[in-house]
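Hello forum,

I keep getting stuck at the same step: I have a sequence, I want structure tokens, and every attempt I make locally crashes halfway through. Rather than fight my setup again tonight, could one of you with a working pipeline run this one for me? It's a single chain of 175 residues.
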Amino acid sequence: MSNVKNENFLTPAQAAKELGISVATLRKYSLIVEHTTENANYFERNSQNNRLYTSTNLDGFKKMVELGHEPKMTLDLAAQKIYPTTEEEKTADDDHLEQYIDDLKAENKKQLETIEQLKSEVSDLKVANEKLESNNEMLKTENIQSDERTSELKERVNEQVQDDKKGHWWNRFVK
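Reply #2:
Ran it on my machine without issues. Output:
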């Protein structure tokens, strides 16, 4: 039993209010957890020997009650599922959590590799896009120059046609 004074701990009244239950119900839940874990000092206590609760404790109670509402499930059974009762179960849970963490790390590594690959592809696409934009500008310039040459040629052809309609200078006298 430790004489802990820390603002991270909630008194029974505060914890009960947070959970929306009575202090007596909170005491019942605490006794179930202590019985299941076979640890009478599972919860921190203050100098008056009152239990003190953390947000983790409250989350555990919420899970226990949620499981307790399932068919053929009591609060004692729910507590046994949530709180390990022996060192072997704790070790098994720890091993399971370590495996889960390792799996998450491996998945995270794969995701980071995928992100790097996608960044590389985006960079390549940006370069290709810049080249296409440059080619597009060059083609626009060539098109404008081509249009100017076409206009000049049209003017020359029109002048030539006009000259052909007039005929030669001697045709003016022959008529």
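Strands lie at 44-45, 51-52. If your local run keeps crashing, start a new thread with the error log.
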